[in-house]
Design a protein that fits this description.
Length: 430
């Protein structure tokens, strides 16, 4: 995911992919605020989803659904065209390809709305990736479809929007222990996972994305890190799959294990919020643990989410610094670091700061649901695109056992270490 991919000279409006994602992201933020937060991406059956033929009929009998489908297609289509133009890319075949990718994202959303999948905490990106992989490996992609698969731009724009949903005020008002735990756990687990992955001969790029996925906040962290270091999309899709699959047994087993160990609701919530890697699974596990458990699981999870921007920034700087020129002996100056630094990370941080400190708290909170839905839809488009561009043979050739083992070892350490930290903070010191 090259930080300035697609940038060309000769036309003043061509600013490169990273800056284009920032412009488009903030353009969408302004648009949503101006519209009074009435916009949303399609939902199939609401929070409950659908679970039978009658439920499906009821879903598609809704006029508001088709209005939402059309408005989403229009809004994201205009935003994507703007982004492609600003990136300096050609629009030939893009619109047809984008519409196809967008329709596939709708299908993935519909599948993920099945009640059984929602209860398991399975997120739409897993189905987006799976659907893209299925189509991409069954048929040869035509040029017009490939033109719409702009995964890097979709990911970066989604991350800028995601920044608007991470509010520092919520974390600070909820108390300091959650943030303290998040800082300790993220640093310790990140370095341990990276160390164990490198010991197992997993490459630096894979190890960095893997460590972020385990230690910070799962899917979003892996995506942000991949963007920050120009990570291989095949490796990213592998990590996302592991994160989402491993979260399922953890969601079910951890509340039962906490009860068996006699942990308090606060410790239980803090433990689960610090270890389960997907927000949906955290909420599901917290609900099982009870109201207090859910509260503290959410606080800790949000605290780790806050650290996403900070971590992405430092990882970006480090990666830009360590990158070598073609001769392998390039002197790394601040100018070089700036040129290589992924600018969308700044967009993420700026969005978070604006919504945390400059906007009215009620306004910022009211935007959360809409902004999150918009960010998630960008990610859905990205993972449809990644799936379309990835062959199963490519994934098989990655020798995936070592990264898998590194992930499982890192997650085991995360479970044990986070339990100790959560117990000390929320039981001994509180």
């Amino acid at each position: 995911m090259a930080s300035e991919k697609g940038k060309t000279a000769g036309k003043p409006w061509e600013i490169g992919e990273d800056w284009a994602s920032v412009v488009v992201g903030f353009g969408m933020i302004v648009f949503v605020i101006a519209a009074g937060y009435t916009l949303t991406t399609p939902t199939f059956g609401g929070k409950a989803g659908w679970n039978d033929y009658t439920g499906i009929v009821n879903v598609f009998n809704s006029r508001s659904l088709f209005v939402s489908l059309f408005s989403t297609l229009l809004i994201f289509g205009v935003a994507s065209i703007l982004g492609i133009v600003l990136s300096g890319r050609k629009l030939k075949n893009f619109l047809t390809g984008f519409i196809s990718v967008c329709l596939l994202a709708f299908v993935a959303q519909f599948i993920s709305s099945f009640t059984g999948f929602k209860n398991l905490g399975l997120e739409t990106v897993l189905f987006s990736l799976g659907l893209g992989l299925l189509i991409g490996n069954l048929v040869k992609l035509p040029d017009w479809l490939r033109a719409g698969a702009q995964s890097e731009f979709y990911v970066k724009t989604g991350l800028v929007l995601l920044g608007s949903t991470i509010l520092f005020g919520d974390i600070l008002s909820a108390g300091s222990f959650g943030l303290i735990q998040a800082v300790i756990v993220v640093i310790a687990v990140w370095y341990f996972t990276f160390w164990i992955a490198r010991k197992m001969k997993v490459d630096d790029e894979f190890s960095t994305m893997l460590a972020s996925g385990v230690s910070i906040c799962g899917v979003s962290a892996a995506i942000a890190t991949a963007g920050a270091i120009n990570g291989d999309k095949k490796k990213l899709s592998f990590i996302i799959s592991i994160v989402l699959i491993v979260a399922i047994p953890m969601m079910v087993l951890m509340p039962a294990l906490a009860k068996w160990m006699g942990l308090s609701d606060m410790v239980t919530g803090a433990w689960m919020g610090g270890t389960i890697d997907t927000t949906g699974a955290v909420v599901a596990a917290g609900t099982i643990a009870g109201e207090t458990g859910l509260k503290y699981a959410t606080i800790v999870k949000f605290s780790q989410n806050v650290l996403l921007g900070v971590a992405a920034f430092f990882i970006s700087v480090y990666w830009a610094y360590r990158s070598k020129g073609e001769n392998g002996r390039e002197k790394v100056s601040m100018r070089v670091i700036w040129e290589r630094f992924p600018k969308f990370v700044l967009g993420f941080i700026l969005a978070s700061l604006v919504f945390s400190f400059l906007l009215n708290p009620e306004t910022a909170k009211a935007s959360g649901k809409v902004m999150k839905s918009f960010a998630n839809f960008w990610f859905n488009l990205a993972f449809i695109s990644i799936g379309l561009e990835t062959r199963f043979a490519d994934l098989k050739a990655m020798e995936s056992k070592k990264p898998l083992y590194a992930f499982l070892i890192g997650q085991t350490f995360n479970i044990i270490f986070t339990l100790i930290v959560a117990y000390l903070l929320f039981e001994v010191l509180s």
